Structures are given as C-alpha cells and as structure tokens.
Task: structure prediction
Amino acid sequence: MDIADPKKAYSAEALRSFTASAFEKAGVPPEDAAMAAASLVEADLRGVETHGISHYLPLHIKRIKIGLVEPRANIVVKRERLSTALLDGGNGLGQVIAGRAMNLAIEKAARTGTAFVGITNSNHFGACAYWSMMALPHNQIGIAMTNGSKLPAPGGGRQAMWGTAPISVAIPGDQERSVVLDMATTATTKGRILLYDKRHLRLDPTWALDSAGRPTTDPKEALKGLLQPVGGYKGYGLALVFELLSGILTGGDWSYHLGGPLAEDFSRPTGVGSCFGAIAVDAFMEPIDFKRQVDRVIREIHESPKAEGYDRIYMPGEMEAECKAKRQVEGIPLDADVVMRLTNMGNELGVLFPTEM
Amino acid sequence: MDIADPKKAYSAEALRSFTASAFEKAGVPPEDAAMAAASLVEADLRGVETHGISHYLPLHIKRIKIGLVEPRANIVVKRERLSTALLDGGNGLGQVIAGRAMNLAIEKAARTGTAFVGITNSNHFGACAYWSMMALPHNQIGIAMTNGSKLPAPGGGRQAMWGTAPISVAIPGDQERSVVLDMATTATTKGRILLYDKRHLRLDPTWALDSAGRPTTDPKEALKGLLQPVGGYKGYGLALVFELLSGILTGGDWSYHLGGPLAEDFSRPTGVGSCFGAIAVDAFMEPIDFKRQVDRVIREIHESPKAEGYDRIYMPGEMEAECKAKRQVEGIPLDADVVMRLTNMGNELGVLFPTEM
Result:
C-alpha cells in the first residue's frame, strides 16, 4: 500500500447501490440500472479494476448526459431462429443489452441444447466474464466476445485495425471453482505499457510494435506504436474471427471503423457489436457428472509437478475468484482520487458516495 | 529443393484414389474411405504435410490392421437435442466420425440457426480446417476442435498435461478467399524444435520449457522438456477450454489420460474426443451481404500500411489456399522416402502407388 495515497475499502453492496442510483439519476430504469451496477462492481470484486466503476461509471454517465448513450434504450429483436437471435441494442448501455442477450441465449440453449445471440448498436459492456458466467447457475457453458477500440495491427502490418477482441468462456465445476477464461487477444494491455514507462522498465519484445511496425522493448516507442496480438499470427487470427463474429455478423462493423479508444471518443456512438453463446451441459451428459469431471481435471492440474520457481498452478479465473472472496469480506479498495472523482460525480447527480467500511 | 533428394509431384486425384483404395483394402467401406482420403489429401494440397498422407495414412492403416481402429465403425447417437448431438464414434477412423458429426451440425444449424456436435471414442481426424471448411458452401461459419497427444504443461507446471488443443474457424468470403483459422494452442510444434536442433539454431524462449519447467532456447533441452502454450497463460486457458469441451463434455477424457504421442501409441485405442460447431449466416443477415462485408474487411487489411520488412499481409488460411491452387496444377511434391514407404504399404495391401505427374 502506498502510504502517500492510502486506499480505503468500500463494501460491494454500498458501491452497487451507489452505482445503480447514479444510473437511475441519469435516466436508466431501475432494473437496468441494477444490472449495469452489478456487472461493474463484480469486476471490482474480481480485481479487474480496469473494467470496474472507477473508469467506466463516470464514462457511461458522461456518455448518457451528452446524448451518446440512450438510458432507456429500445432493444429490438431483428432476426430470430430457434437457437439464435440478433438484437439491435438501440445504443443503450452495453451491460443492459448484453444481459438481455445472454439471458436469451441461456433460455434458447435450455430448449435446443445450444444458442448463439448477437447484438449490434451497443456499447462497452465491461468485463466479458460477467456475461459468460451468467450461464453457470443454469448448468450451461457460457461464451462472450466483443469488438472494441482498435489497438493492434495484423501480422506484417503497422496500422491499428482491430480491438483487443476479448473472449470469455465459463465452464461449471462442482466443489472446485468454475473455470472462467477471460482474455484479450492482445499480448498485453496499454495500461501495462504505461506502467512500464513510468517505472523505466523494458518491455517483452512480443508485446508491442513501434510506429514503423518493428517489435520494440522501449515503452515510449511502444506508446507511439501498437500492441501486438498474443502469440503473433495466432492471436491475430483469433482476433479477426472474434471481430467478424461480433462486428460483421451482427450487422455492425469491425473495430477499425469504431471510435477509439472506445467510449472515450465523445464525437459519436461507439457502435459496439458482441456475441454470446451457451451450451447446455445436459444435452451431452448429466450436469453433476460433468461438473465432477471438471473438478477432477482441476485437481489433476493443481496436483501436477510444479515448474522451478512456482509453488502453485492457477486455473483460469481462480485468482479472480479468490480476490472476490477476499473483497466480499474486506471490501473493495479504492484510491483516494477515484473516491474523489466518484464523490464529485455523485454530488452532481444528487447521489451520496458511501462511507468506507 | 534438395538435389540429393528431389521431390516428385503427384496429382491430388491420383493420391486420393490411392489413399481411398488403401483404406478400402483395409476394410473401410467405400464412402468412408473416400471421405478419409479426401481430407488427408486436402492437407497435402494445402501444404499441411504434417497432417497429410505421408505420416497419417500408414499410421491409420497400421492401427486398423492391429485392431486398434474399427474400419467399419458403428457410429451411434448417444444424446440429441434440436441443436446438439453427441456421437459415439465406435473407435472408427477420426475422419469418418468427424465428417458425420460436421454434416449433422450443418444440417441442424440450417434448421435452428446454430449447432454444436460432440464426438467421443474417436481417433485422430487430421487437420481441423477440413471440418470447419465443410460449413462454407452452406453459407455457414464452421468450427472444429479436438483433444490429442499431451504436449504442453499448465502455467507454473512442468508435466505435459494436455494436447496441442487445436481449433479451426472457417468464415465464408465472396470474391476473396474465405478466412480459415487453424491453429494449435501451443507456441510452436515439436517438428519445428526437431528442425532447429538439426540446424543448430536457438529457440525463441517462449516456445519450450526444459525438464525443470524453465524456458529454454536450447533445442536439446526442449526435446527433454515440453512445449509452451501460445502466449503463456492465454494459450493455456484456451487449451483447457478446448480440452474440457472436446474431452470431458463428450464423455471421454482429456489429453492427460490419452496415449501420447497420439496414434503412435500402439498399446490401446486413442480415445479422442472432438467437437464441431456451425452458425448459419442467414440467421443473422443475408449471406451475400455478409460475404461481401467479409471481403471488404479482407481488402481493408490487405491494403493497410505494411510493417518494415513486410510487403504483404496474409489472412488466416490464405497461404494454404494459395498453396492448394498451385498444387492443384503442379501436383503435390513428395519426398523419395515418403514415396517408397507409401509404395511398400500399397504393395502389402495390393494397391499400386501412382506414377508422378
């Protein structure tokens, strides 16, 4: 903890209530405000602050205020089949549209075994994992992906063309924690490069390119250049697939034509497209048998020999689940400047920021 | 071309006919033999020799002969919903079971918009792309993934636990070539490490681990150790997801419990599990509109500024499609020792290996 800027801890419940009230004051209906608040605070609980309230709550509120996001969006089903749907989100909050879409995917998968639902004319929906994880209590496997701000270049290119193109897949366990993969298809984040620059550290050469498209270990050159896709052409290929599914198949566009950085371009709507999948486990085997098998795989991996320097092997989503368990008890730590910004935003809306735990 | 060992070229049609006849002589019904032959020779046409006839045809024939693969497998539907199915492949040829499963996925997706079909009790099905690409002429997006030989370790581990866990996604274009991603979730292949060893080259430190689980640039240490997943924990997470879907959800097991290297362990059936997805484009928009939009994305990427040292940007599957176009005219080049091995195998079965073009 930085003594000059001690973090104070706030209960998730208090932050959810504050966030929901802020959305309501901005004109979002209560049920939608609750959905958006729950998903944003969940990111903070899981230690994914980049997608939590400190950054995105003020951004969403600002975009609603200046008319770039519809607080009461009219979400319309554009096409529908037994196992698919395409929703026009009416430029509403990404979280509200994503929640509607994922619920529809879960409902359809329960009937037909699997479903795939796309959304267009949407906005930044926060962390992907929130949506894939909605499938877990239904004994389903959940999938979520989206387009977004353009950051990396294609292999051999030097122009930012697609987004971080993240995907999340959630697979239910029984006694063990569910497997929750949530990853961008970039090798690292812009935030990490900023941090390395601040600390005068060299970058891994696979992380970023300079403005001529050459791999660079200099954070300053990287900030003038681009992020690299994870694993070179493999991350590039995955990103392209997620872009075509999220942006093109939904009738929107790919990240190259979206505003960037996403949600921080106040000249136009973001035009985000996303898609959601669900697979009902009971279409393949009894859910309890499947979940016990997933537990067994997790235990076999946990108990396998460790590499030199490691005393533990983590499963995807395990660190986040442990962080959540801790923060549910100890609260969510927020920097003083974040508290100040949220307090001021609350004051403008007439919503009191909570006191620390 | 190596002058000491000149390659001769053979027509795809002649190799397909030879391969199908070899399978038939081994007891595979004609229709199934044709399916297996077409998929194996397609890999050779696309320049993916590692998954073509030179390696896998003798292996499959050998496994059939010693009773480890059923030439006339009884493929049974174990569970079925409107948009899903689980097939027990009866330990038949992987190509035959995969073809059955992908056709079923395409049929179901045409009716309900999307489908997901799993197979268990199967065998090595060759290159993933052959199965995902079956969706393209139906104006569908195809997906294929599988488990297999255990090669990499989890992040922080040093024991091989899962397979190369490949995935392929095929997305139809109109005038431009369809996007066909086909990638293992390992950073590189064992074949590449063998090649670097032969040529006394150092490895990229992200490719492999030594036997203590430390990254190594020494091919000899890597050969005693393990492959790394692509992009560290991201490739690890993707591999785990593909393993759980292919091996666990289908009622089989994950690669850790399969024989390895797959198909070269002659002590037991391989027990491969795989799964296949299909998304009907017309469930989201008119196929011609979608394919034209895919074309536009491809052109925008092709025409984007190149990084220093590059004069061209390739799309996933583009090199393979160009290779195929060339080899359809010029034939498939085979090493003299491959020709000898296949000729001998043919002689044993009573099938004449074709003459060169």
User: Anything to note?
Assistant: Chain B touches chain A through 77 residues (CB under 8 Å). DSSP finds eleven helices and twelve strands in chain B. The mean pLDDT of chain B is 94. Residues 1 and 7 of chain B are 7 Å apart (CA to CA).
